[in-house]
Design goal:
alpha+beta, Translation Initiation Factor IF3, Alpha-Beta Plaits, 2 domains, four-stranded antiparallel beta sheet, 6 helices, 38% helix, 37% strand
Length: 238
């Protein structure tokens, strides 16, 4: 056999024995995926909503933009001053805007404006009393109950241990079902979530509806939120 033929046969043998890197990677991934089980477990707890958020607003109309601004500013200043007397309630200014009003012939007829005050408190009785006073001049726009961030975080930390315990329990069930002697943890992720019921409706009363009468404070019930921690991951059964 000539030398050129021997070299050609050698190259053919090498080509037959060569395996593309992609194929090797696929085989390695397949080996790692052998007896791999995807699992998920969770732990939940209901906790009381301990923080109330409320938004009240005032609207006004005036032919003069400056007079409209004065009306809104005076009402907001009075509201913030009143809120300052309730130490358990945090109050801050919300949106404040005005816009022109036109008639059907596109002639400017006046101005309309709106200003908001936003309240937050863990003392439902105090914020209820403040809302009642503010409703003599303002309207209630929104009301919602949430779990204080620190309370939620502490609850989530406690639930992580419970969720991990539930995950390990499911991992043992999967191992026994496959007849394995043990398992290796390949991947794990921890996620948190929570849900709260929709806020309870509250009667909205304007100054014109209330007149000079004092608005009665309403009793608030914050309800419950569900805090959930889920653990998902993969194990390899040996």
């Amino acid at each position: 056999m000539c030398k050129a033929a021997i070299v050609l046969l050698g190259l053919v043998a090498m080509a037959a024995a060569w395996v593309p890197p992609a194929a090797l990677a696929h085989d390695a991934a397949a080996a790692l995926a052998y007896n791999t089980v995807e699992l998920q477990a969770e732990a939940s707890r209901e906790i009381a909503n301990d923080t109330l958020h409320a938004t009240l607003f005032v609207e006004a109309n005036d032919a003069d933009a400056a007079k409209l601004a004065n009306t809104l500013n005076r009402t907001m200043n009075d509201a913030l001053k009143m809120a300052a007397g309730f130490k358990a309630v945090r109050a801050r200014s919300g949106g404040n805007n005005s816009y022109p009003v036109y008639d059907r012939n596109q002639r400017l007829t006046g101005w309309r404006g709106r200003a908001e005050i936003r309240l937050e408190s863990r003392d439902f009785q105090a914020v209820s009393a403040l809302i009642a006073k503010l409703q003599e001049q303002m309207k209630l726009s929104s009301l919602s109950f949430i779990v204080d961030p620190d309370t939620r975080r502490n609850t989530e930390n406690e639930l992580i241990s419970d969720a991990m315990k539930a995950f390990r329990g499911r991992a043992d069930i999967a191992r026994m079902a496959l007849g394995g002697k043990g398992y290796k943890l390949r991947r794990i992720a921890i996620n948190t979530s929570g849900s709260a019921p929709p806020p309870r409706p509250m009667m909205r009363m304007s100054a014109s509806a209330a007149g000079a009468a004092e608005v009665a404070a309403q009793q608030f019930e914050g309800g419950l939120s569900t805090v959930t921690v889920s653990v998902s991951g993969a194990i390899e059964v040996e």
